[in-house]
Design brief:
alpha/beta; 7-stranded mixed β-sheet; 40% helix; Methyltransferase; Rossmann fold; transferase
């Protein structure tokens, strides 16, 4: 199967999953997509800076980012046309449709200049999305190449549940598989590799006893 066929297949799968779920996605996911708000607060978009959320879903994080960083220029990308319907609706309701710019595209090969006329970003966010993107390593590789000098890629997703009961991990992972979600066990290694490829640095940590994990890849400010 070609890359184009694979992209279309994944887009179709996401649309099938979220055509109905998008209507109650935010109401249910707030109970287990933990750490999103904390990461948004920590990423500190510079004054008048730019942020892209890859796999932005319903636009929930972008709406919060707009409140936290009122001077920022915000962008959202998602492969699912169904999710973008909800994102556009939510931005309209929040009065943010002129502040946040959305586009449909694949996380591994989007062209930000063609989509929005933006060359590079100060911050890029991947929030509970790598676990649903099959070519997730390529997604990280492409994302770091979209950073400005001094820019940062922030990632938060499901962790290894190392300090939680084994039955909890088994039940959670089993439930996630029903939605084609696969936690990435080697995120730290891949993040550090991506950082080395751009002569940057990487930080890694866990949240909530390993329920979630996060990584920060920082590009050098020296060109």
């Amino acid at each position: 199967m070609s890359n184009t066929q694979t992209d279309h297949a994944h887009a179709s799968l996401m649309d099938t999953i979220y055509s109905k779920q998008r209507h109650f996605y935010d109401a249910t996911r707030k109970f287990y997509l933990l750490g999103r708000d904390l990461i948004l607060q920590r990423l500190t978009i510079p004054q008048n800076g730019t942020m892209l959320e890859i796999a932005c879903g319903t636009g929930r994080n972008l709406c919060l980012a707009a409140k936290l960083y009122p001077s920022a220029k915000l962008y959202g990308l998602d492969i699912s046309a169904e999710m973008l319907k909800s994102a556009n609706s939510n931005l309209q309701k929040a009065g943010l449709h002129d502040k946040v710019h959305l586009a449909q595209g694949d996380a591994t090969d989007f062209d930000a200049n063609a989509l929005w006329g933006v060359q590079k970003f100060d911050r890029i966010l991947l929030s509970y999305s790598l676990s649903m993107i099959p070519p997730w390593e390529a997604t990280i590789e492409h994302a770091v190449n979209q950073l400005k000098p001094g820019g940062e890629l922030w990632i938060v997703d499901f962790g290894d549940q190392a300090r939680l009961p084994k039955w909890f991990k088994s039940a959670l992972y089993g439930w996630l598989r029903k939605f084609h979600v696969q936690p990435r066990q080697n995120l730290e290694a891949i993040a550090r590799k991506a950082a080395r490829n751009i002569n940057g640095t990487a930080e890694f940590g866990t949240l909530y006893r390993g329920y979630a994990q996060f990584a920060v890849i920082k590009k050098s400010s020296i060109v």
